[in-house]
Amino acid sequence: MLALLLAACTGLRVEDVYGPTLHTLEVHLSLPEEYAGLSLGGITVKVTDINMEASYTRESASDGVLVFRLPEGLYRLTTSAKIGELHFNAAKGGIILSGSDRTETLNLKAPRFGDIVIKELYNGGCKKLPAEGNFQSDKYFILHNNSNHTVFLDSLCFGTLSPYNSTGTNVWGEGLEFVPIIQCVWQFPGDGASFPLASGADAVVVVNGAVDHTKEFPLSVNLNNEEYFVCYNSTYFTNTIYHPAPGDLIRKDHILNVVIKTGQANAYPLSVSSPTLVLFRTEGMSIQTFIAKEGTVIQEPGNSVDKVVCVPEEWVEDGMEVFDGRSSLNNKRLGPMIDAGYVYQSDTYTGRSLMRRVDTEKSAAAGYEILVDTNNSTNDFYETEKQSLHD
Amino acid sequence: MRRRNSRFTISLAFVVLAVLTLSPLAVATGPEGDSYLRVLRRNSWNDGLNAAGMRQDTVSRSRAELGASAGGGDFRNTYEAEKWREAGASAGTVRHLDKFSMNGTFSFRQTESYGACGSMLMEPGFYPLDVMEFTPGRKTFQHYSFIGGLSVDLGPNWRIGGAMDYSSRNAAKRKDLRYSAYRLDMSVLPAVLYHEGDLALGAVLVYGRNTETVSAEQIGSAASNPSAFFDEGAMYGNYEVWTGSGTHLHESGVSGLPFVENTGGLAFQASKGAWYGDISLITGKLRVGEKQTVWYRSPSVALEGRLTYRMPTAGAENCFRLHGSWKKQDVQRTVLVRETVGGVSLVKERGANNVQIRNLAAADFEYERLGRLWDFRAGLSWNMDAVSVAPVYPHLYGRTVQRFALQLLALRRFGRVSVWLAPSALTGSVKETEEVAAGVTVASGAPYRLNKNDYYYICNEFDSAFRTAVQAGCRVELGRGLFAGAEASCTKAFGLEHIAGDMRWSAGIKLGYDF
Known about the structure:
- The structure holds two protein chains of two kinds.
- Chain A is mainly beta.
- In chain A, strands 13, 14, 18, 19, 20, 21, 22 and 23 form an eight-stranded mixed sheet that branches.
- Chain A contains five helices and 25 strands.
- Chain A is 8% helix and 36% strand.
- In chain B, strand 6 and strand 7 (199-217) form a beta hairpin.
- Helix content of chain B is 6%, strand content 65%.
- Chain B has helices at residues 11-21, 24-27, 35-41, 455-464; strands at 61-72, 83-96, 100-119, 130-153, 158-173, 178-196, 199-217, 227-231, 237-241, 257-272, 275-290, 293-313, 316-341, 344-371, 374-389, 395-414, 417-436, 467-479, 482-493, 503-514.
- Chain B has an 18-stranded antiparallel barrel.
- Chains A and B meet through helix 1, helix 2, strand 3, strand 4 and strand 6 of A and strand 13, strand 14, strand 15, strand 16 and strand 17 of B.
């Protein structure tokens, strides 16, 4: 009797446990019309269970169809494919697989690769050790010229998207053809040739506090440097905890301009846990002309105070999406043309930073540093133990 | 008195195990060289759930006692303390009057444990899921318990009765990752009994509820935040910073980590002459989470039965007890989706997957002799805990733990002094299996299994290592119903490779009054 009981209790198989809740997810890949003749076979698509962070991959058949057999869950589909010499990205989230099989179409898009990319983003802050508490007034990011020619930073703009955090309520849905820049658009000054960035060179942009923070908080960084650019505007961002007066080494012509302020914050709110960051240049007009046009600055849905600037996706040079590693409720904000994936920041106030990977082969061939750029932060970025500017 | 080990869980086998391994909460219940517990044990109906059955006996007894104990040693499971101290008070009574009988107990116990971490739940293993932290510190436990029962004659052949069992426990740990936990166990058992001659038949309706909530907090500042681990079974689960969503300790909109289980069922009893038998079927529904955010659901079914035969001989009463139980728990992990409608975000449940199937089974046989000078008890027990864990498709893991125990007890009375000795032995086995469905490419890798600080190996070793234990004690009647007692125990394990030590000890004293 005991042997029978033991066998009944311990003889379960995979199909016994998973079988009742497995369903089929059929994915059909599609290309834009201008690329209709290309082959859709052999493309690897990844499906990720958003709550579990478990992911599965399959390769498409020659007709661009993939079939996954998955347990119930909330899924996201992503792919970064190379067909010949052409790159394509696609992403689709919010796929609920429950109760029945499902079919989805994944539209591949050709991303734009800019000359300037984001090399590092440090937004998570650090501990105040040996004092008590956390410190986040030392955010910065680093730009890198990934091309083989000199690029000028003049008039380059950047901003962060709504919602500020990946776990926040995303009122925009999927399929947007613009990026909703919230709170403020920053712009590099210059006459067009003031700030050259050579091939493989970097430029540091200080978001908060261009001072030497290490004097008070040893785990932080020294951001007082004559080469650095600074987001500082005492008219619009008056909070001196986040925006103290720049250090004595900061050059006055390295202070970025506020093109437009569309929110009420007294400090520029780049999320400490899960920001997005986009770099863009206008085409055919200045940013000042663009924002004066009707319909380019709109109210954020559900928000009576803040507005957003609707920047066309085609203007974006580079973007990155950060997910909060502590949460299972992250939502994508950037479309696949800009960033098909996301990089996790494991925790806040740890001094960790997000770095773009180096393409060692291309760098060796070109003789200058070339960073990996597939417009997919999942592939392109990784988390480091500490800031690159930390001594 | 409603014994803890006559509840509708598998707790009997684990109480036996607890006695053998000398967990702090078990030492307080030493064998009875006294009248109050002997009176309870001689009525088989007191082993079951039917309060109306207490009137099958006619002897009234009461007792009050104070006690203190301490213990330590490194042969312990991951959630047990390096050393502990405990003090408490309890009172119990069974009273038979003309038309009705009543019983009741009240107890309070406070335990201070040192160097404790591991499971943040108060009864590790009671729920099929667990949550752990890894910074040893001081933990304080308090336990309040109240049990009350009533049996009333409705006529020459009918009795009705009822019992209520209420227990409240709380725990607090004061070192990051610090936390507090609150546990409530309650059961209500209305009963009916028909008796004619030496035949008695009874039925009980069972309703129970148990809840436990763990609230974690970090106050101090450190270079890195403490980590925690949420165990979905066999140590597969989520290991991350304690504020991460995988540990469920710091979820927006949810107060702490709540476990809530409602149980209900039926139990039937019968006795004829020297024979007594009962069977119960209890179903349960557990949820982990609250309001719109419920992460796990677990229905369960439990079947339990016992058979007792009393055989009086000259100057002694012999009793044979056979007990068996089985419980099955299916754990489902829900699919939660945040949906925004009209600017309002709601979390909705959109499906569920099996994550664990657990079977608990136990069987034990006991022979007891209660005589004028000598009491003797011998028992054999077996229990099994088999889990199949499905943390990430297509992986399936199985873990089966079996334990066999032998217990002996001999008590001798020398006038006002009683001494007793209880040697025991336990051995076990752990068997593991793994299966991965073919044809599925998992990009995220194999599921995570905790092995921080060798936890996994320590748990396996603790479950299966051969050990012997000896408990000894004495009781002195001081006159006018007053008594004093002392007891000590020692466990030694063999063949250890991962657990830091092979010994565990405890000692206690008590002062009481029987009336």
